[in-house]
Design a protein that fits this description.
By secondary structure, the protein is α+β, with helices and mostly antiparallel strands. The protein folds into 2 domains: 195 residues, no CATH class; 150 residues, no CATH class. The chain has 14 helices and 11 strands. A 6-stranded mixed beta barrel has the order 3-4-9-6-8-7. The protein is elongated, with a radius of gyration of 35 Å.
Amino acid sequence: MKAPDLLELATRNLRESILRNSLTTMGIAVGVASLVAMLSLGIGLQEMAGRRLSRSGLFDTIFVTSRQDFRGFDRDEGRDAPKPEELRALDQSAREEMAKLANVVEVFPEIRLMTEVRYEGKTNFAFVAALPPSAREIEAFEEMKGKFFSSEKAEEAVLSDEFAKELSKKPEALLGQELVVRYAERQPLAGGNGAEEGEDPAGFSVVRREQKLRIVGIIEREPYGGLRTVSRGRVFIPTALAEGLNVLQFSDLRGATRDQSDRKTYTSLVVRLANPSQVLAAQEAIKKMGFRTFSILDATRNMRRFFAILDLFLGIFGSLALAVASIGIVNTLVMAILERRREIGILKALGASDADVKRLFFVEAGVMGAVGGAAGVALGWALGRAINWGTNAYLARQELPPEQIWSVPWWLVAAALAFSVVVSLVSGLYPAARAARLDPVQALRYE
């Protein structure tokens, strides 16, 4: 029997018991809809988390520290680990070498210091953190009041909303005003190598300095999702300006005890890549230079595992309804065998083989699966949109921004349709085998 004939005969048989077959197909549609709706929510939540982290400016970033500061923290270090003085320092030469790596966009130090902030005669203590020009693209600055720094070395400041409220009852009135930051500056000893007898020629002195800053912006959210040291600053200034201030850092104190105070070292450097997919290769290259590295990809491995398990469980629970629908397919086709015994007998009498009868019932099961799968995908899509709309309505009442927690990628549609057809064909195995075993003589006698 040819394929077109099988399809025509199967669709005609399905139309004869339209109510029963429609209910069975509807059961398949409900099962597929529950599967699509649950998986689309899992995928949507995963994409939402990914968007949040991507917009936070963390996925394309590597944090680099010296092994001198963290010696003994690595599990693979043994007693034969090199001494601190034998390890490479995180200095300007290392920074320039990292900047030459493929796909590296920028390399800048992570600077955060405790300062005294003076405004209108009042003194406050606050952490000042440095931000590079690329920070203007992150989520925290999308809805800021005012504007971002006008240049890399602009003597300007962006305040956190919390700190702005401490300075003034009307935070927005601070825009355009000046504040003074008092900090400790690192200065080399006068005379350098020609220092007086008894002095350390590689030493330095600490001098108190003041820097006037014009307030240009106020932000409500912590930069970088609150996951970086500088995120917890209350006053933000350009990184280039912070470097020019020559602020005393922890690395300077460490270097003074290791005869390294004659050169500038960094506590940590931040390496930003052009694309998150290039982070792992850059990490390996920096590790070969002798430094410790960390990226948000290391921290998100557990998150990706969590979402994979979540999607698995959602798929399992969503498939339960489809399993119930498969029982309906078996029941429908078995009843069809009882009602169509004479028809089966006539087909065999006219020369149809057992394989032809099997294929006929397989096609009927496949048609119900395909139609039910298509209807289920549409129903699941509508259900997902309804859940997303209801969620955003709730968020709006809570004065929170809307979120896209639902997503139906093309591969989910294809997988749902294929799964529906496969389950239907498997459900048709027993009825098809039972129909093929009918004796044509006994079938023709059936009334």
